[in-house]
Amino acid sequence: MMEAPHSSVNSPSVELKSLQLCDREATESADCDLRDDELPVPQQTRISSITCDSFRISWDMERRGREKITHYFIDLNKKENKKENKFKHKDVPTKLVAKAVPLPMTVRGHWFLSPRTEYTVSVQTAAKQPDGDYAVSPWSEIIEFCTADYSTVHLNQLLQKAEAIAGRLLPFTVFYRNQQKEYFQQDSPSYRSRDAQCCRMLPSVKDNSGSHGSPISGKLEGVFFSCNTEFNTGKPPQDSPYGPYRFQIQADVLFNQNTNVYFGDFYCMYTSYHYVTLVLAPAGSAGDAFCKGRLPALDRSNNCFLHCTEDDDGSLSFRHAQDVILEVIYTEPVDLSLGTVARISGQQLLSQSTVNAKKDPSCKICNISVGR
What we know:
This protein is mainly β. The protein has two domains: 13-146, Immunoglobulins (Immunoglobulin-like, Sandwich), CATH 2.60.40; 152-352, no CATH class. 6% of the residues lie in helices and 32% in strands. It has helices at 152-165, 251-254, 286-291, and strands at residues 13-15, 43-48, 54-60, 71-78, 96-99, 105-108, 118-128, 134-136, 143-146, 169-172, 174-179, 194-195, 200-201, 204-205, 221-225, 245-250, 259-267, 275-282, 297-298, 306-310, 316-321, 325-330, 334-335, 340-343. Strands 14-15-22-18-17-19 form a six-stranded mixed beta sheet. The longest helix has 14 residues, at 152-165. It is elongated, with a radius of gyration of 26 Å. The two termini are 23 Å apart. The model is unreliable at 1-9, 17-31 and 87-94 (pLDDT under 50). InterPro entries: FN3_dom, FN3_sf, Ig-like_fold, PHYHIP/PHYHIPL, PHYIP/PHIPL_C. Residues 41-150 form the Fibronectin type-III domain. This is Phytanoyl-CoA hydroxylase-interacting protein-like. It holds the Pfam family PHYHIP_C.
């Protein structure tokens, strides 16, 4: 039953726990039969306090017939489906029906709302009749809005799930990035993330792979690197989904005592192995400013995924988690002269690419209790 419990006088909450109409015995009926045109039409609908799985809604109404209202009908659709016909209250219920409560009210429900998703919403006022049917007003205007990214609270939930499966830490010495041969050639202007004249790899906007609500997707700029090693050799694998040519750079060039580490995402792609996305941002950089307040910060020498520790002789040692695949985003340009480029001997495994890959919404390991 979708009721609106009075959790707050100012903003009651409507939980989207079910897609059924309110229980007829649990609601009060209107005193007498009404015509639809006797109820006020919601006007000037306003959406506020938007999160990844909730929003507050309010509207204005004429005084005429307001005392007869017993329920609100809220028609909520993903924007791409906005051309579909609105539901009728006699049809199979697919939308929210809530008891009339003081406005604004909060609509909340992780089964219904997904992060970073455009929705349309329209509302009706309704009066329960003695026979159990409803008199309803015309629909209000259609309002469009977009839900928000995961908050740091949600990202910390993801972080805890990732920490649970990270496994032991293995040593590594280099970060590496695979690409096609043309990417590393000076006379190749087709790659926007490559500065041919200055021989630099440039930050580019992260794609939409991974969790739908991750605040770095489509916003954070950086250069992708890997650092996972093969268990038997301790070296980078000789296969890659991104290209047969590999740039390698000593780990301490990108990751040192001046580098801040942030957790960005945890996901899988309908497979048994999981990905953890980390951000390496030099302190005070634009990338560092972007991450502060948006992403959980990690202790560079004491976290479950990527360690940088200082030895007695002042040198740095590095370790990575064994049981997850780390995607490392470095937020600044990287000069190719600081590393080496060579062809790898393995295959290019295109099926393992994570470019715009969609997260498995049914995985119990890497999903949290909000919209995927």
